[in-house]
Amino acid sequence: MADFDLQKRLLHWYAIFVAAGVLVLICSGGLVTSHEAGMAVPDWPNSFGYNMFLFPISRWVGGVFFEHTHRLIASGVGLLTVALCVLTWVIEDRLWVKWLTVMAVLAVIIQGVLGGLRVTEHNALLGLFHGCLAQGYFALMATVALVTSRFWRQIKPVLNERVVRRLRFWTGTVTVMLFIQLALGASMRHSHSGLSIPDFPTAYGHVFPPLDDASVARINEARLGTETKAPISANLILLQYLHRVWALFIVVGLTWVALDIFRQRQLPATVRSAAVWWVGLVFVQFALGAWTVWSNKAADIATSHVFVGALTFMTGVLLSVVFSAMLRRAMCEDSAESARREVARA
Fold first, then answer.
1. pLDDT tens for each residue of 8-21
2. Reported pTM
3. What spatial distance separates the first Cα and last Cα of the chain, rounded to whole Å?
């Protein structure tokens, strides 16, 4: 398109680069949690009294390596986000896109403060909010990359309004379900109690895990002889069980919605391909969840689970945004057509 000049193309690719940086940051945070390294560096914003950027490399060992590099990556991503905001205000002509990048800057600032307070306040709940906000921040950056693309400028209302509304509703519903699942997963990771249910697909050999006091006491006694000695509770067992059941609902619901999208032949090939990609991601995510249990929560497998979960949620957000754009443009066309008819009658 004539209005998609070199500057705007470069802005779009830079937005993709920043979004990829956020994904790397999420994976880095996943490694911190998986290695139980969240408190390896006990102070913030300094690192053992040093300026964060002057901390000696010789001391980047063990859990300190994961926590300190996570802080450095976060600082880099924050600077990249600020630069994206500045470039967007210079290059973009759409005010709402400019404000999206302002929201991204606010999100990364809040994200950094939450991460720091998690350390200084020794508060696991702040770590939970930190993890959930990271997913929203990633989705926001991916949205900026989408709306600065050539594809976004070419979106047309190719389906009737009723079909678009249905696709948007169900895609949005599944995406909300995905965010709830991410929050459940973050709650499990930040409980720092390891695997509350060590087997899969069963739960302590049963369809439904034992939750009575005597059973939980026996489980905690057995855990004393393992690497994970942290005690668990009936609530933690129930939390992990809910995470599994919710995953089944998501797999079924997402597959159904994606097939509905794929069947709409009038949709752009990019959107239909994204639906196929979405289904692939959710099945890989489910398999990684099972593998996380079978591997006794191996750090690389658990982090891969976080990585694919972020991509799955992001894909749902972008599809919902695309359908919202189609609906808005369909309504604008209807309004324009009605105005033309009124003029013709006059």
1. 999 999 999 999 99
2. 0.92
3. 35
